[in-house]
Amino acid sequence: MTNENWDAIIIGASAAGLSAAQALGRSLRRTLVIDSGLPRNRFADHMHNVLGHDGRLPAELVAMGKAEVARYGVEFREAVVAAVRDAGALLEVQLEGGETLRARGLILATGVSDELPAVLGLAGHWGSSVLHCPYCHGWEVRGQRLGVIATSPMSLHQLKLVRQLSEHVVAFTSELGPVDAAIEAKLRARDIELISDRVEQVLSDDDGSLRGLRTAKGQEVMLDAIFTASTPRPRDEMLAGLVLDRSAGPQAQVLTVDATGSTSHPRVWAAGNVVVPAAAVPQAMAAGAIAGAALNLALVEEDFDLAVR
Questions:
Q1: CB neighbour burial string for 182-213, b if at least 16 within 10 angstroms, e if fewer
Q2: H helix intervals, 134-280
């Protein structure tokens, strides 16, 4: 079954998607936001480094954004998009269950899924005491006993940032292999303890709070919080049928976009973590607003061309 047409469909209702919807709604575009209700930051207790919203619950920001956007006539639908197809002057957006919607343009703002290191018990603390971003969560654990589970050479940057937060830092380096002597000297000069044994398990107290880590050789290291990096998996599989251009980013293979979020398809934009996995909430907001404005401009030009024809 194919339903009504829309000027714009946005897939994803978090910071990027809602910012795009706001730009389009205020431009009098008939806009639908489709969302599955699983934002990336749902595991975090609070947001930080978001000016004017520091310490706010992520879900609260989304609720505020939806209320603002709805004032401009934007509509919402809780659903999962199965596929997007090119239909010439329109795009067809197929939902799970078979229903198909049509739109003149589409913005993908679905974010990423975080694939965590294979450490027993790690996932249960993700977003609370197992953290990834020193800027987002570092202040809250300043001065405490901090561990960093390195996952790639990029983790050395994370480790140096974490050392700024505390004098009690332990680096678990098994995934890096032998650490270069010059780098090791730098880390030890800043009193960072290096443990090369593989991390096997996260230790928890009876109340579920983090207690530390156990290595494969049985060493137990008491910690208050752990930093590590996930492997981000962009949630863009619904666009597979469009065969869009891709680029190798520092964290993942992502859709190629220009400064406005435009992809290699003239009716498709993408914004937020789905194309920049490391982007925090303010960056995702900005990217969404730019993509929404760019899609509206493309529709404005098309409206004039259609009028002439």
A1: eeeeebeeeebeebeeebbebeeeeeeebbbb
A2: 134-137, 155-163, 181-189
Whether the predicted model's global pTM rises above the 0.90 cut: yes
Task: Tell me which residue has tokens 């290699």.
Answer: 264
Give residue 249's pLDDT band: very low, low, confident or very high (50, 70, 90).
confident
Average pLDDT over residues 57-84: 96
Band of pLDDT at residue 129, cut at 50, 70 and 90: very high
* Burial class of residue 95 (count of CB atoms within 10 Å of its CB; 0-12, 13-18, 19+): middle
Q: Based on the number of CB atoms within 10 Å of its own CB, is 305 exposed (0-12), middle (13-18) or buried (19 or more)?
A: exposed
For the chain, strand residue ranges (E) read 2-11, 31-35, 75-78, 81-87, 90-95, 100-108, 112-115, 130-131, 146-149, 169-172, 193-195, 199-204, 210-215, 220-222, 225-228, 231-234, 246-248, 253-255, 268-270
pLDDT in tens, 84-120: 999 999 999 999 989 999 999 999 999 999 999 999 9
CA dihedral 89, 95, 97, 98 (to 10 degrees): 10
Domains along the sequence of the chain with CATH: 2-114+231-308 (3.50.50.60), 117-228 (3.50.50.60)
Residue 153 is classified by DSSP as T
The pair of structure tokens assigned to 101 is 């919607």
What per-residue confidence (pLDDT) applies to 1? 46
| Dihedral angle over CA of 221, 224, 229, 233, nearest 10 | 120
pLDDT tens digits along 170-207: 999 999 889 999 999 999 999 999 999 999 999 999 89
Cα–Cα distances in angstroms (integers) from residue 136 to residues 24, 131, 222, 259, 301, in the given order: 29, 9, 23, 25, 40
